[in-house]
Amino acid sequence: MASQISLHGREPSFFSKLAFYWVNTLLAKGYKKPLLLEDIPSLGCIDQAAVAHEKFTKAWDLANSLRNGQTLSNANMVLKTLTKVYFHEMVLSGFCVFLRTIAVVASPLLLYAFVSYTNHENKDLHQGFFLVGCLIVVKVTESLSHRQFYFIARRTGMRMRSALMVKVYEKQLKLSNLGKKRHSTGEVVNYIAVDAYRMVEYPMWFHVGWSSIIQLFLGIGVLFSIVGIGAFPGLVPLIICGLLNVPYAKVIKKCQLEFMMAQDKRLRSTSEILNSMKVIKLQSWEQKFKEIVESCRELEFRWLSEAQFKKVYGTILYWLSPTLVSSAILIGCVFLGSVPLDAATIFTVLATLRTMSDPVRFLPEAISALIQVKVSFDRINSFLVDDELKNDLSKRGQEREKLDDSVTIKHGNFAWDPESPIPTLRDINLEVKCGQKIAVCGSIGAGKSSVLYAILGEISKTSGTVDVFGSIAYVSQTSWIQSGTIQDNILYGKPMVRDKYEKAIKACALDKDIMAFEHGDLTEIGQRGINMSGGQKQRIQLARAVYNGADIYLLDDPFSAVDAHTATSLFNDCVMTCLKGKTVILVTHQVEFLSSVDKILVMQDGQVTQTGNYEDLLMEGTAFEKLVNAHKDSITNLDTSSSESKSKSKLHNRDNKNWQSEKNSKENILTKGLGVQLTEEEEKETGNVGWKTFLDYVIISEGSWFLTLSVMSHVGFVALQAAASYWLAFGIQIPKITKVMLICVYTLVSTTSMLFVSLRSLFATLLGLKASKAFFHKFTDSVFSAPMVFFDSTPVGRILTRVSSDLSVIDFDIPFSFAFAFSAGIDLLATIGIMASVTWQVLIVAIFAIVASKYVQGYYQPTARELMRINGTTKAPLVNYASETSLGVATIRAFKMQDRFFEDFLKLVDSDASTLIFSNATLEWLILRTEAFSNLTLITAAFLLVYTRKGSSGLVGLSLSYALALSSIQVFFTRWYCSLANYIISIERIKQFMHIPPEQPVTLENNRPPSSWPSKGKIHFEDLKLRYRPNAPLVLKGITCTFEEGTRVGVVGRTGSGKTTLITALFRLVEPDSGSILIDGLNISHIGLKDLRMKLSVIPQEPTLFRGSIRTNLDPLGLHSDDEIWKALEKCQLKNTITDLPNLLESSVSDDGENWSAGQRQLFCLGRVLLRRNKILVLDEATASIDSTTDAILQRIIREEFSSCTVITIAHRVPTVIDSDKVMVLSFGEMVEYGEPSKLMEMDSFFSKLVAEYWASCTKNSLEKFDGF
């Protein structure tokens, strides 16, 4: 039935497919040992994501062309396309569910025949055995068709899921900037991780929906065939109950929609917070951002509660309708006299209504599930039809038509927002010849990066032409690094050519860094390059571009994150030497390199104000003159005469005495001290953890009372239902009991049982809601109080899958799967008990069937458990990959690497799908065998009733009416029991992150510093040693030093020398291994983290903004007035820019502050510290992304505003620290020098070498030209 299941390359036989024998190999392997991902067979060709995507794309493109031709609506296009592609599979699964429906409806007719048979005086055994034979055929047909239906429907759903996941990913690679604004990274990840995932259940619920309606109508037909017009009164309550489902479905739809919107908002906030956790911890904003996530969850929880309580109302409706309908029909039979009211009639009516209760119960669930799917369809649809990048660069990537041309832009106007009246770039004219080196410079926000985006086609072109001849390599301003090894990031999908690879590494000054890493170039990089310094990330990006071997290189401020010596080395060795003969367009703030390029573009307010070479622009003056003068002022702070004289001698022997040569004698360390690979394998339990996890679920949620009451309520319900059935069985044979009394007592007892079943659902819902609240709060508290090393080594996707899909399982699935599992277990025992009360011999077979079912379940469970766990670990890489792609899509498109990323994503989707298809197949394998055992019990009971010829017709009817329900009850129990066992894995996964060893306390009540602390700002390091992990080497090796109050201290050193780690220690992001730091004589390890961090100000290495407004970014805690904020903005040079915006302080900031330039983002960070006014200020490479003019202004502001403060500056530009009171020089985690810059300059010191190198590069590239000027 299931077409083309490939296992180890072989096609199973028809009977193997029918009975699921083809999964025996996997089950046997899983029973012997815990399964691993490599143990799971790969998907057959027909199930692979590539095939699903190809079919979907073909149909989608056809639908698009028809729509464009006829100007049709683009609504429901996803649904229509899927219907077209999977029509045959849907028909096949529909046929299976139709067969099953016929078999189910035939069962009450067989019961009627059996009871009628027992009423005969002379029973014909042949007729009895014929009935038993018919029962066997009906039950086997029902069982096989039902199992095939579930498997084929879920398999079709899996293919739909794969098609949509891949289509969404593909669209992400083509999405325009306008589309990106409408669909954030978090939302796109949600389309893949939540919406596309829902497709697995869609075909199943679709078929359950229509087959339930058919089953209802067929059931009504059976009732009419048995009781005639007596069935009419029963239609009234049936129609009323059916109509009541309509408002119920509408309310559920609203709850689902609101819940999903609230969930989207929470996940977007969570994703942003996790990606910026270092900044949040430095600023001690954890509590504020935790409250933001919790407030999003509160709204989400409100809609969750409403949806779950509405389901209680649904439960009452499901169970009340059969009672009311059966009572109405029986009364109709009495008063209309259509048929005599005997055992055959009564129990056939009850059996028929039991077959109708499933459709009544599942129809609202199907409607609810289809509503969820419809919402997901709409969301994916809106994304897939959104604006794509209009790549009209017809000549891009083609061979050059003329050897001269590389890039030409004529009268180009470009805008990030095409609807904006003011373009971002105006009247751009640019002609770049082959092999030219072009520099683009200008102040912050002038549009420098936008020029590169215009060449890449990333920004909307409103007019003009852009032609690009040749391939492009692009280095973005904000580093984009993938999770993986350094080697993977540099090769970027290209084959390894060792000489070329080593040349690229050397040209980008990465060779020494790689030597220092314990794992060399196989060192794993954490998410977003979290374990690399800013300089290392930038150089890895540059090496990736160099190794790519493109024709045109677009470099967006690549030297901002590296020190002066490295910047000079990169410019000379990489840009000028390694890329000789290549076209390079370089955006830079480093004026010292401008004299070496062929042409300079000076940008101002989105226009090219000046173009020419260095000498010509100096003669013209104006904007370029300002840039050069600012740079000249900064470097003339150095003692020119002494520097020049020293530079000659030092440069002469630099090769012998340079720090680089000393690296060989130093101990090799990792930049961040990681002795083991940073990102560990995702933790997962193995083997059988039993029901301890579920017990933890109850204990954590403090819901033991709700659990007990829920079980007791269901016991009461089953007891009353059984009592009502026994009353009918015995009462029908007692002449004294009138028919009206018989029906009234039955109705009263059955209706009373409704109270108990509603209480069962209510208590299960309350347990679920309590658990949702408890797990979320404990998880959130644990993650927000986790130390920084946890975030360094844990990919964000790993945390996000737990707060999205795993939390959804706790929210929706566990409460009801638990209620269904235990209630079906109680029903099963009650059913066997009732059957045994009529024919005790059935107990022998029933006990055998239960034992055999338990054995089969025990054989299945180890495989199912590990498949579920593996599935939990295959989803996170998929989500991570989609998230990473979204962040680096401009780089991917620039390198034309869409196809490679697409292929890699296909593999991840297939890996995830293989666990799903085998999970479903093994579950159907189990249920088929469980059904066989329960059917054996049923057939034995029927055979005994025929063969023994004992029992009254009432008891025969009672026994068979329960026996016919036995297999469905057992299947229901097995399915929900196994589902619950699988869902428990989500509890395991969330629990893993609920007990993360926390940071030190936020405050220590008995040891709080005075409110005026620190009054001076004196910092003393005493033999400070620090390692990032217990098994890692030391990164700081015994630093002893004192920063006097009110001094300006510059911290310098090569990349990886420990500069940023020193700040990490000061803020206690990592606790010292030994030694101490004292601020104003107070040991900072003895106070709370918040008390410490709130008293320190920092502008971090990577400027971070959050989605929201300018106000919330500058003052997240809401402590300052508008007037104070405006003053801070004025001081950090942003006031004019913001006053031009219509919404002023309420102007929006998009995800990661993408609508502001990197320089502006750093100015916002400066604004934050100006508001806080602390005694200690740390600038961690804070002015790396801004031009010399703005840098000089900011240094003046910092000098004025923080004149009485201790200012620690980590900088790559020597002028930034040259006017400091003291300079600390670090090398390989040791302090090699500490003193006044002027004194260090007078001796043969490490610092004087640094200055000499910087001075030499400036002299060579710039000062020669000043004389002429």
TrEMBL record:
GO molecular-function terms, A-Z: ABC-type transporter activity; ABC-type xenobiotic transporter activity; ATP binding; ATP hydrolysis activity
The protein's enzyme class: translocase
E.C. code: 7.6.2.2
Similarity section: Belongs to the ABC transporter superfamily. ABCC family. Conjugate transporter (TC 3.A.1.208) subfamily.
Transmembrane segments: 90-115, 127-145, 208-229, 235-252, 316-337, 705-728, 740-763, 932-948, 955-977
Topological category with respect to the lipid bilayer: Multi-pass membrane protein
Reactions catalysed, as given in the entry: ATP + H2O + xenobioticSide 1 = ADP + phosphate + xenobioticSide 2
A GO-annotated cellular component: membrane
Species of origin: Helianthus annuus (Common sunflower)
Domain of life: Eukaryota
GO biological process: transmembrane transport
Protein name stated in the entry: ABC-type xenobiotic transporter
Keywords: ATP-binding, Hydrolase, Membrane, Nucleotide-binding, Receptor, Repeat, Translocase, Transmembrane, Transmembrane helix, Transport
Region (Disordered): 637-662
Domain ABC transmembrane type-1: start-end pairs: 91-372, 715-982
